[in-house]
């Protein structure tokens, strides 16, 4: 995370938490000749358009007042979607039992991509039961990306 995104996160995350939202991810970068700041938010009941509009207004006001971004940008606020990213230790604990897809920075046993059932998080390691039956305990700092896998059968059970 860059210093700028850390600064932005420090400004908006406490406010969002106080409103009952979780800041799942924050991305800032240049796309198609313009700068875009994207916030992905969630809450237990899910996210709707009204939530995105409310958060956009409040975050926009905070950023206008603090002015941490040196150039003009577009602010986008959305839900992380059904295949939300898992980033924090708490994410791996919260979504234990769900299906996940992991991509490693470096291969483990010659493989960089894994899919299976998330068992949880213990002692700095993501615990996963792979689709092929193997169990892995992967240090979190070796995980490049982790995402939930949308599973219709799993969703119907919940």
From TrEMBL:
GO term, biological process aspect, one: ribosomal small subunit assembly
Keywords, A to Z, come to: Cytoplasm, Ribosome biogenesis
Provide the primary localization: cytoplasm
Where in the cell? Cytoplasm
Ribosome maturation factor RimP N-terminal domain segment(s):
11-83
Gene3D superfamilies from the UniProt entry: Ribosome maturation factor RimP, C-terminal domain, RimP-like superfamily, N-terminal
InterPro entries noted in UniProt: Ribosome_maturation_RimP, RimP_C, RimP_C_sf, RimP_N, RimP_N_sf
Q: Which GO terms describe its cellular component?
A: cytosol
Any idea where the Ribosome maturation factor RimP C-terminal domain is? 86-150
Q: Which Pfam families match?
A: DUF150_C, RimP_N
Source taxon at top rank: Bacteria
Which SUPFAM superfamilies did the record assign?
A: YhbC-like, C-terminal domain, YhbC-like, N-terminal domain
- The leader peptide range reads none
UniProt family annotation: Belongs to the RimP family.
Q: Which HAMAP family match?
A: RimP
Function noted in UniProt: Required for maturation of 30S ribosomal subunits.
| Name this polypeptide is given | Ribosome maturation factor RimP
Q: Which gene encodes it?
A: rimP
């Amino acid at each position: 995370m860059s210093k700028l995104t850390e600064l932005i996160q420090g400004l908006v995350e406490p406010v969002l938490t106080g409103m009952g939202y979780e800041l799942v991810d924050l991305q800032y970068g240049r796309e198609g000749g313009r700068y875009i700041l994207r916030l992905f938010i969630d809450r237990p009941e899910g996210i709707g358009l009204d939530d995105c509009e409310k958060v956009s207004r409040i975050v926009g006001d905070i950023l206008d007042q603090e002015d941490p971004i040196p150039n003009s940008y577009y602010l986008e606020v959305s839900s992380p979607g059904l295949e939300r990213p898992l980033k924090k230790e708490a994410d791996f604990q919260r979504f234990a039992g769900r299906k996940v897809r992991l991509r490693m920075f470096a291969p483990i046993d010659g493989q960089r991509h894994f899919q299976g059932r998330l068992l949880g998080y213990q002692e700095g390691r993501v615990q996963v039961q792979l689709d092929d039956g193997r169990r892995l305990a992967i240090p979190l700092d070796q995980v490049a990306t982790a995402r939930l896998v949308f599973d219709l059968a799993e969703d119907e059970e919940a």
